[in-house]
Specification:
alpha+beta; 15 strands; elongated; three-stranded antiparallel beta sheet; about 575 residues; about 35% helix; single chain
């Protein structure tokens, strides 16, 4: 016999045609039913598991009809006797009753009417058959497992009217459950709260570290630190730091618990600012304000105190509400900008060095130094140097802090050439360097500044120009010294001018310096061995006259770069007079 899919989960009890007996245990005994099922399967070659259907031995003899019974779950009158049908119906009502009771218990043991009468009534009324739509009794899994039936019977009591009543929790049981829950809560809740506090402290430490990095970024961008003003001021440290930190101003100045952070700058930090961001992660415990910590001794006390310890030195009076128990909830983020300042000043020194090289290159190419005029003049030293650097004229003039650089040339007297120049810049907010005019107002100021070491404020003859500066701000002063002597001795060699006159006529001359346009006039009675005029430099202009009154110009010569170290002019008396009488050898 072939086993059908729909025949699965049929109870393993097989009942013979002798079903008239009311001895339930003898007829429906589990072990006996299992033995009968095994015998039928072995004799009829039925594969699979037989469970749930009560079949008479007559039906087993007809294999085709038995297969129909198993697959379609329909009772055929030709196969099963009347007593068999009655028992099928009785067993079905028992399954409905027990399944209903089990579902009721799963739904919270609510009281509801049973769909069948008591268990005893099910067995006493076997002929009240529940029929299918086609008039035949239902087949199927009519048995209920022993444990389920036993639990239902043990937990229920029959009441009047055939209803089942389930017993609820007793007061003692409820008290026991509540006691267990209280013990578990007492053990678990403190650990949970500690974990929450530890997570909050860790998150706050991470936030203050991000604020410290934002402070450094703000300093690099703006060349200064945020203001110490606090809300409700329109401009405060929260609004200034919000962009660099990627947070809202409110998130900058307050913790996730809603307490205010304190932002304080060391009053004695000088050129390398020290900053602290202090916050509390303990509800009801506030940190000291910026005003109360704006003292060098108190700031140093908090700065030098180890993490997890309450300050006990000069600022001890500010921490009276704190203790060793609450110390872990105090977060102090220390920010030292010395390395940032060093990098910033180093960057400015590199820029100044590039500008110094540009001055030398400009002199090599043009034979003169850049003009000392400043913006807004259309031609000024920034526009002239911009062509020899990668910077714009504005970047040549201004530092990253927006302060002006100063370009100054050593004072000199023609025909001498300027051999030194300087570039000066300030990286300290609110402190400008002296102007070129003030430096050149005294012949000794330039030399005093030139000879002062780096990192020191000049205190000689030019000390009057540096009253706004001090030792603490000296690191922010950058001086680029430009020595031009090598340019004049190599690329732009000076010329010795000799005039040879074949007669004893006194002649006149005029020198125009290309660098500054200074004009020098004079007369000379040259001989073949005596230099007639001072030393000249490339691109200087020489004009020679046939008379001492400089009325009749004979020759004009502009010196070019790369000429030899000496130049001789010979006088030749020729006619007509329009012919030049001087020529260069």
């Amino acid at each position: 016999m072939k086993t059908q899919d729909s025949a699965a989960n049929i109870s393993s009890e097989v009942i013979s045609s002798e079903v008239g007996s009311r001895d339930f245990e003898d007829i429906f005994g589990r072990k006996k039913a299992q033995r009968s099922a095994k015998r039928i399967v072995s004799e009829r070659n039925v594969s699979g598991e037989i469970s749930g259907d009560i079949i008479s031995e007559e039906s087993v003899s007809e294999e085709v009809i038995f297969e129909e019974i198993v697959s379609k779950k329909v009772v055929s009158g030709k196969v099963i006797s009347e007593e068999g049908r009655d028992l099928w119906a009785s067993r079905y009502r028992k399954r409905v009753f027990l399944d209903d009771m089990y579902e009721t218990r799963l739904r919270g043991r609510a009281r509801r009417p049973s769909r069948a009468v008591a268990y005893s009534n099910v067995c006493d009324e076997p002929r009240k058959t529940r029929l299918a739509r086609d008039g035949s009794p239902y087949l199927g899994a009519l048995t209920v497992s022993g444990p389920s039936r036993t639990r239902l019977a043990r937990r229920s009591r029959p009441t009047l009217g055939g209803r089942q009543r389930f017993r609820g929790f007793t007061l003692l049981e409820m008290i026991g459950v509540l006691a267990i829950m209280s013990i578990l809560a007492a053990v678990i809740i403190p650990n949970v709260l500690k974990s929450i506090d530890a997570a909050a402290v860790k998150a706050e430490i991470q936030t203050t570290q991000n604020l410290a990095e934002a402070l450094k970024s703000y300093w690099r961008t703006n060349g200064t630190i945020p203001t110490t003003a606090i809300p409700p001021a329109t401009i405060n440290w929260g609004t200034q730091l919000a962009g660099a930190a990627g947070l809202s101003p409110h998130e900058v100045v307050t913790t996730q618990w809603g307490s205010m952070r304190t932002y304080v700058v060391d009053p004695a930090s000088g050129s390398s600012p020290r900053i602290m961001i202090i916050s509390s992660m303990r509800t009801g415990l506030a940190v000291p304000t910026q005003i109360s910590l704006n003292n060098a001794a108190r700031f140093a006390d908090v700065w030098d105190t180890s993490d997890g310890v309450i300050p006990s030195g000069a600022s001890a009076t500010l921490w009276t509400s704190w203790s060793t128990v609450t110390a872990p909830f105090l977060i102090v983020q220390r920010v030292k900008l010395d390395t940032v300042v060093t990098d910033y000043v180093t960057s400015e020194a590199s820029i100044m060095s590039s500008l110094g090289d540009a001055v030398k290159q400009y002199l090599r190419v043009n034979g003169q130094l850049p003009t000392t005029t400043i913006p807004p003049a259309s031609i000024n030293w920034t526009t002239q140097l911009a062509n020899f650097t990668q910077f714009s004229p504005n970047d040549v003039l201004l530092t990253k802090r927006g302060l002006k650089r100063v370009y100054v040339i050593e004072p000199y007297t023609w025909p001498a050439k300027p051999m030194r120049a300087m570039l000066l810049s300030s990286m300290s907010p609110g402190r400008d360097v002296p102007t070129a005019a003030s430096i050149n107002s005294n012949g000794n100021y330039f030399n005093d500044i030139w000879q002062t070491q780096n990192g020191v404020i000049p205190n000689g003859s030019s000390a009057i120009l540096w009253t706004a500066w001090s030792a603490s701000t000296a690191p922010f002063l950058t001086i680029q010294r430009i020595n031009l002597s090598d340019i004049y001795t190599t690329d732009l060699q000076a010329l010795t001018i000799a005039l040879n006159n074949r007669t004893s006529t006194t002649i006149g001359y005029r020198f125009t310096e290309y660098t500054t346009g200074i004009v020098t006039l004079g007369t000379v009675s040259p001989t073949a061995t005596t230099p007639a005029v001072p030393t000249a430099h490339p691109k200087d202009k020489l004009e020679l006259y046939r008379d001492s009154a400089r009325a009749q110009l004979d020759y004009t010569y502009i010196f070019s770069s790369g000429v030899s170290n000496a130049r001789t002019f010979d006088f030749e008396d020729t006619t007509p007079p329009s012919t030049p009488r001087w020529y260069a050898k």
